Structure to design on (266 residues):
């Protein structure tokens, strides 16, 4: 058996128990001995494992593990992009992909517009709001961007080993800013176009995603705008739609990497 760990922060363990158990069982079928560890305990371990699946969203931890020669899924570069929205937008701008206008200082904001505030490291649709008071904005902790009036919903592309495996669209409830499935948004399979696939491939040219998500905003005119990366991507929406193959594909990818598959150094 090949020893590995899956890492969570403590508050996320209970709500992800079914996924963790599924990961461990399917891992054993592939000769992978995967043990659950909490992110707060990692520095006390003896590092007698070959790989780590870091779902704690702590990219500093990923960096420390990689420094010890441990293969981490996902790698540090994508873990950063998936947990720091400003760095994600900087990367997206470098590959010339469209995204909503972002404001990095107060004097750039047009106060006549609707502005959305969301945490720089947020996930799950938590703490997203329309700005009402411009006197107490925190540009160190939050991202401020234009509200998109022509917004229909969010498209999520599920990526395994830098390949699009599935795509879904999430539609928010009426008068809601948030399309997240766990917040009441509806979800259905999204049939993406060749043009949209080309956009994804352009994004993937300079990063490696072992298993993650790329989210876009879909507008009424058919245009898509990059929204964010998802490092610790979930599978609830896919399971809801009867799609349950991402676990096996991800674990097969891990086996290939650990057993000597040619690894991309990006």
């Amino acid at each position: 058996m090949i020893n590995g760990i899956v890492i969570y922060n403590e508050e996320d363990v209970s709500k992800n128990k079914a996924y963790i158990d599924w990961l461990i069982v399917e891992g054993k079928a592939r000769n992978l001995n995967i043990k659950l560890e909490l992110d707060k305990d990692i520095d006390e371990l003896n590092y007698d494992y070959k790989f780590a699946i870091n779902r704690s969203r702590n990219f500093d931890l990923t960096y420390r593990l990689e420094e010890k020669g441990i293969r981490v899924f996902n790698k540090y570069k994508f873990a950063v992009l998936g947990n720091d929205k400003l760095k994600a937008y900087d990367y997206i701008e470098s590959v010339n992909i469209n995204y909503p206008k972002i404001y990095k200082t107060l004097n750039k904001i047009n106060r006549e517009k609707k502005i959305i505030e969301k945490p720089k490291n947020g996930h799950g649709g938590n703490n997203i709001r329309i700005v009402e008071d411009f006197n107490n904005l925190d540009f160190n902790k939050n991202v401020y961007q234009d509200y998109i009036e022509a917004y229909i919903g969010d498209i999520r592309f599920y990526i395994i080993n830098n390949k699009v495996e599935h795509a879904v669209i999430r539609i928010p409830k009426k008068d809601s800013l948030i399309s997240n499935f766990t917040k009441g948004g509806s979800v259905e399979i999204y049939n993406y176009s060749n043009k949209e696939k080309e956009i994804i491939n352009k994004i993937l040219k300079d990063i490696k995603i072992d298993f993650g998500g790329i989210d876009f905003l879909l507008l009424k005119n058919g245009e898509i705008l990059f929204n964010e990366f998802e490092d610790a991507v979930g599978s609830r929406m896919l399971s809801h739609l009867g799609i349950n193959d991402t676990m096996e594909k991800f674990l097969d990818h891990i086996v290939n990497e650990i057993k000597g598959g040619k690894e991309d150094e990006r």
The domain at 81-99+149-240 is CATH 3.30.470.20 (D-amino Acid Aminotransferase; Chain A, domain 1). Helices lie at 10-13, 17-28, 59-67, 76-81, 85-94, 194-204, 236-240, 246-258.
